[in-house]
Amino acid sequence: MKPSAPMTPLADPRRVMPRAAASRRAVAEAAVNALAAEQRRLESLGEEWALARTAYQLRYWRFVRALVSLDPRDARIHPGRRAA
């Protein structure tokens, strides 16, 4: 297995992200949840290489989840814009 291969199908970064904000949040949340479950499973098995790969992918998907959770209308994100 390649080091860059997704640990679960839900965590495949090549998947197309939906256009709707709520759907993007749901995809990112599903990836984080699937990877967290896989991480717990691997911890009990003691699979260090797979555990390291899972941790790497989990860090990426937590970042994506945070990005898609941002409200584009928030003035702190776009200081020059006014809220609609």
What is the first-to-last residue Cα distance? Answer: 48 Å
Into which percentage range does the β-strand content fall? under 5%
Q: How many β strands by DSSP?
A: 0
What form results from the Cα inertia axes? elongated
In DSSP terms (H or I, runs of 4 or more residues), the helix count works out at 2
Q: Which residues form runs of ≥5 with pLDDT under 50?
A: none
Mind explaining what this structure looks like?
- By secondary structure, the protein is mostly helical.
- The protein has a domain at 19-69.
- The chain contains 2 helices and no strands.
- The protein has helices at 21-45, 48-69.
- Helix 1 (21-45) packs antiparallel against helix 2 (48-69).
- The longest helix has 25 residues, at 21-45.
- The radius of gyration is 16 Å and the shape is elongated.
- It starts with 20 loop residues before the first helix and ends in a 15-residue tail after the last helix.
- The mean pLDDT is 86.
Set out the fold topology:
Blueprint (H helix, E strand, L loop, with lengths): L20 H25 L2 H22 L15
List keywords for this structure.
single chain, 84 residues, mainly alpha, 2 helices
Q: Gist?
A:
The protein is mainly α and 84 residues long. The protein has helices at 21-45, 48-69. It has a domain at 19-69.
